Amino acid sequence: MAFSREIMYDLDSIVIVSILFALILVANEVGYRLGHYYQSKTDSDVKTQTNTIQAGMLGLLALILGFTFNMAVQRYNNRSEAVIIEANTIGTALLRTNLLPAPYDSLTYAQLQQYIVLRLQVDNTMEALVTKQEELNKATKKLHTEIWVNAVKAARIDSRSVTTGYFISALNNMIDAYGKRNALLALHVPEVILFLLFIIFIMTGALMGYAAGLGKKRSTLPALVMTFLICLVVFIVIDLDRPVRGTIKVNQASMQQLLGEQEETEPD
Question: Which is nearest to 230 in space by CA: 73, 65, 56, 59?
Answer without folding.
Answer: 65
